[in-house]
């Protein structure tokens, strides 16, 4: 966004960044095993600038440190850091009475004025969530959240360690922690489906081929179902013989990653019957990967179908339970009662620990925004507005009562390959801002009925998928106790979403008042 506004549009731009370096989620999430689960080639910038064209990814899924090096490389090569103020947390922002200028307040007590305020706070990392477990504050060992992993690391050698949480983060960190700890206890409340990543390094010939195909891969991802450069085979899983189904699923399983879900049959995420076929296939895979049948059964999800929660991609997660120094503690059979000074207390008794790792996720999607005190027209607080009606936005870009305020990937946009979505959002918002400036207008605000209409649309849309069967998860904001389920994303095809965004721009932004 900085590059686009500063270098393409020639605006005066300042980025305020809470951390001391670029990278966002990859700056904060330094836990062992942190790795992107989207293929590197499309989890990078797609715009053409020869200054960053010589970057080479080492393999299919980059690790956190490689991702951080990438973002540093881009920021340095494009000379972005001179426009970024690091170590500055925004505590809030208030719209002036003129309705066209924002006063932004920083946690260190300063105020800055700007016509346009664009939030790029992301949807997860800036708001880690730790559950209020009785006694947590009493724990005398090392307590660490994966999303705030210390830069100097945590010494796990020879320690009794527990990981609480088995979402994407827990699933990534558990195999790595198991290799370092004396003993690892995995505290699992809800088992989840996980697909092998099949990570591999790129040799020079593979990389050369990827480079050759790169423009085409990006174009495909931009007009795809979920921001990835592949398509389903056009068939319903219900229309093929069981032999054909098995063969296709085995082939996709061998390829691994999200392609298994989005690149096979067209109706796995929309038709519960078709979904059940693939859900059963993955359940059998779980049983085959775990030696002890009792442990295996605890690891098989039985309360939600595959794809109804954010899918997980793993490297050796389930095999980790075959190690002698790893114990699965199934909290549905033996509930977590609390934390003591020396360990965790289950119904069956206490488990002594030196280190407790919380892989308990985030106050996702709305949390990063509501940590800031944002006040729009007539002093209306964003927190009050979203509390009353849910986080209504127009396509995830803007919300009424908050003129000249925009979000890159806000609530109501999509949960897909974020690299592709971000770049589209940046371009769309930059075009809108350019349009407002060219017209000589000072203020742009989305019409309230446009966001109401969009909220209705995404609510209808989600009912055509298996998402409502997913139980409580961050995808619906319901991972936070007491919070009701909400539709936070458009779960249709990304190409459709992109077309809707393009049509809005082509209409001259008819959903916006520009004055
Ligand atoms: O968080 P989560 P995450 N008692 O909310 C458990 C992205 N990401 O950090 O399911 C016991 O998914 C909770 O249990 P349950 C990705 O989008 C990306 O793992 O509520 N358990 C669950 O097991 C991902 O989806 C990458 O029953 C409690 C876990 O904590 C998103 O981040 C890598 C509990 C939280 O799982 C979030 O993933 C990693 C309690 N009181 C993450 N409270 C990439 O590779 C919570 N839990 C790109």
TrEMBL record:
Alphabetized SUPFAM superfamilies for the sequence: FAD/NAD(P)-binding domain
Cofactor: FAD
Family, similarity comment: Belongs to the FAD-binding monooxygenase family.
InterPro entries named in the record: FAD-binding_Monooxygenases, FAD/NAD-bd_sf, Flavin_mOase-like
Pfam families linked: FMO-like
Highest rank taxon of the organism: Bacteria
GO molecular function, one term: flavin adenine dinucleotide binding
Protein name: Cyclohexanone monooxygenase
Keywords, ordered alphabetically: FAD, Flavoprotein, Monooxygenase, NADP, Oxidoreductase
Gene3D superfamilies xref list: FAD/NAD(P)-binding domain
């Amino acid at each position: 966004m900085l590059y686009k506004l500063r270098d393409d549009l020639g605006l005066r731009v300042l980025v305020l960044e809470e951390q001391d370096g670029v990278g966002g989620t990859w700056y904060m999430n330094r836990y062992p095993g942190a790795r992107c689960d989207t293929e590197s080639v499309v989890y990078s910038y797609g715009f053409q600038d020869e200054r960053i064209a010589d970057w080479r990814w080492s393999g299919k899924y980059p690790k956190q440190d490689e991702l951080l090096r990438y973002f540093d490389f881009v920021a340095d090569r494009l000379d972005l850091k001179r426009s970024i103020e690091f170590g500055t947390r925004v505590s809030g922002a208030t719209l002036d009475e003129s309705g066209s200028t924002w006063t932004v307040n920083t946690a260190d007590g300063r105020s800055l004025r700007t016509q346009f305020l664009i939030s790029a706070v992301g949807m997860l990392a800036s708001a880690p969530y730790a559950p209020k477990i009785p006694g947590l504050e009493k724990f005398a060992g090392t307590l660490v959240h994966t999303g705030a992993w210390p830069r100097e690391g945590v010494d796990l050698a020879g320690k009794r360690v527990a990981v609480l949480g088995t979402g994407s983060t827990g699933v990534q960190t558990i195999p790595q922690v198991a290799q370092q700890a004396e003993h690892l206890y995995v505290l699992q409340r809800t088992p989840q489906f996980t697909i092998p990543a099949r990570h591999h390094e790129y040799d020079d010939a593979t990389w050369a081929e990827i480079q050759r195909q790169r423009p085409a891969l990006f174009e495909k991802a931009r007009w795809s179902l979920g921001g990835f450069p592949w398509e389903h085979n056009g068939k319903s899983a219900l229309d093929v013989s069981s032999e054909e189904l098995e063969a296709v699923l085995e082939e996709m399983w061998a390829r691994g990653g999200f392609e298994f879900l989005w690149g096979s049959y067209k109706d796995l995420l929309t038709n519960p019957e078709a979904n059940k076929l693939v859900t059963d296939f993955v359940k059998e895979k779980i049983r085959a990967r775990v030696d002890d049948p009792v442990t295996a059964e605890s690891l098989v999800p039985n309360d939600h179908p595959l794809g109804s929660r954010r899918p997980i991609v793993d490297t050796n997660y389930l095999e980790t339970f075959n190690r002698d120094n790893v114990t699965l503690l199934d909290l549905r059979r033996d509930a977590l009662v609390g934390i003591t000074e020396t360990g965790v207390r289950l119904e069956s008794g206490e488990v002594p620990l030196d280190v407790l790792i919380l892989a308990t996720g985030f106050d996702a999607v709305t949390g990063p925004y509501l940590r800031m005190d944002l006040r729009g027209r007539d002093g209306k607080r964003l927190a009050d507005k979203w509390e009353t009606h849910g986080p209504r936005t127009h396509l995830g870009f803007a919300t009424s009562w908050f003129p000249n305020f925009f979000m890159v990937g806000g609530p109501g946009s999509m949960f897909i390959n974020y690299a592709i979505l971000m770049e589209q959002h940046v371009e769309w918002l930059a075009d809108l801002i350019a349009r407002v400036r060219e017209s000589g207008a000072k203020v742009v605000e989305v019409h309230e009925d446009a966001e109401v209409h969009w909220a209705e649309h995404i609510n209808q849309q989600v009912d055509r998928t298996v998402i409502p069967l997913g139980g409580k998860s961050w995808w619906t904001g319901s991972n936070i106790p007491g919070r009701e389920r909400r539709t936070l994303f458009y779960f249709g095809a990304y190409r459709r979403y992109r077309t809707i965004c393009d049509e809005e721009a082509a209409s001259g932004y008819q959903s916006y008042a520009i004055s």
